[in-house]
Amino acid sequence: MKTVVSGILNQERQQILIEDGIITATGQLSKTDLEGATLIETNGELYPGFIDIHVHGGGGADTMDASPEAFQTIAKTHAAHGTTGLYLTTMTESPEHIQRVMETLEPTFQSEGAQVLGFHLEGPFINPDYPGAHAQQHIIEPNIELLAEWIERSRHQVKIITVAPELPGAEALIRFATEQGIVVSMGHSAADLSDAQQGKAWGAQSVTHLFNAMSRFHHREPGLAGFGLSDEEIYVELIVDYRHVHPFVVKAMMRAMGEERLLLITDAMRAACMKDGIYELGGQMVFVRQGVATLSNGTIAGSTLTMDQAVRNLLDAGTLGKQEISRVTSQNQSRLLKLRKGVIAPSFDGDIIAFDERLQVTHTIVRGNLVFRK
User: Are 336 and 319 in contact (CB under 8 A)?
Assistant: First the structure.
């Protein structure tokens, strides 16, 4: 299949040739390049598509629904907001429920929206003192046998796992997951600085939703948050809805660490792109009011954020420039997960989005396929 996408790239109008899902040329293409190609003409600025490594749901569907239809809804919902690749993120549920989810993603699954790149297991190997919106009754200590079973049931589609490094058995599980090529992220954790440093030594590479569901940052005990801010090899997820993290804290964090290790995520649940109301997340009731999702006790329960809104939030606050958008939305994610994405250049996947002058997504193209047009 041959596709040509036109739009503004590097401040000039260019064409991008995509063949069999891969970019093969950019610039002013020849007549030969254009022959037989599907033309997608945009008037917007072109960027690499967003990669959301932590997303539970959207459009009324959730990963834990364990159905191809739910996965399809999530992929299509977030594609309309510039996401071209995502990792379906689980909640802490019974081992049997998690196993059903793992078995649902067939190798033959064809997304009509964002490409499903695998699973992010958020729990159940987390600290019960920092559950966030996860059901405490299903939280368990790290268990290699269970993880190995889920890896097999998913046909090796588990790509990321969140673990609390201070738990008994964490070392063996982190080392095992790393050997399997799985990215280990530390989160939902009471870890102090030494615990976090140890987790990194065992193979952990990132921190799950920085500042949320973890020991507090203190000037005499920086904890997991301080470690994530300061260690130059650790990536950090951040939810920029300005509900999870105060705008001033986001600004201070960006000044402290820059954008080199920042991973914008949504942590979106099924209410994303839906009306306010009562929803379900991980077996618990979630109340969504003015777009803010909470449990009955007031605990924040995921978000209704989309990646394009997270980008607009950072730009509006002056903490990010347009030239850094792709770094925090796709390049860092690609480097961490070893993906051939995040750059509009030959040999990279043809995942492209177009923004209008108001930074609204007008086109979403996944490996050369137009999956959304405004």
Answer: no
Is residue 150 a contact partner of residue 172, using CB atoms and an 8 Å limit? no
Token match 């804290």: residue?
249
Rounded (to 5) percent helix, strand, coil in the chain: 30, 30, 40
For 336, the 3-state DSSP assignment is helix
Tokens representing 129?
């003192």
Q: What is the pLDDT of residues 157-196, one digit of tens each?
A: 999 999 999 999 999 999 999 999 999 999 999 999 999 9
Residue of 33 and 226 predicted with greater confidence = 226
Strands 83-89 and 50-55 come out as parallel
> What pLDDT does 115 receive?
98
Burial of 255: CB neighbours in 10 Å, binned 0-12, 13-18, 19+: exposed
Predicted local distance difference test score (pLDDT) of residue 305: 98
Rounded CA separation 198/253 (Å): 23
- Name the 3-class secondary structure at 335: helix
Active-site annotation holds for 349: no
* Catalytic residue selected from 52, 267, 349, 351: 267
> Looking at the whole model, is its pTM more than 0.90?
yes
Look-up of token digits 């070893």: 338
Nearest-10 Cα torsion for 239, 245, 246, 247: -30
Contacts with 333 (C-beta within 8 Å, 6 or more apart), sequence order: 51, 53, 263, 339, 341, 342
Residues 309, 294: Cα–Cα separation, whole Å: 20
pLDDT tens figures, 316-345: 988 889 999 999 999 999 999 999 999 999
- The three-class DSSP label of residue 75 is helix
Q: Are 133 and 96 in contact (CB under 8 A)?
A: no
Q: In which order are the strands placed within the sheet that holds 284-289?
A: 277-281, 284-289, 292-294
Per the listing, tokens 């099924």 go with: 270
Q: 10 Å Cβ neighbour count for 88?
A: 26
CA atoms within 13 A on the CB side of 364: 25
Q: Considering only 32-46, 147-161, 162-176, which range has the smallest mean pLDDT?
A: 32-46
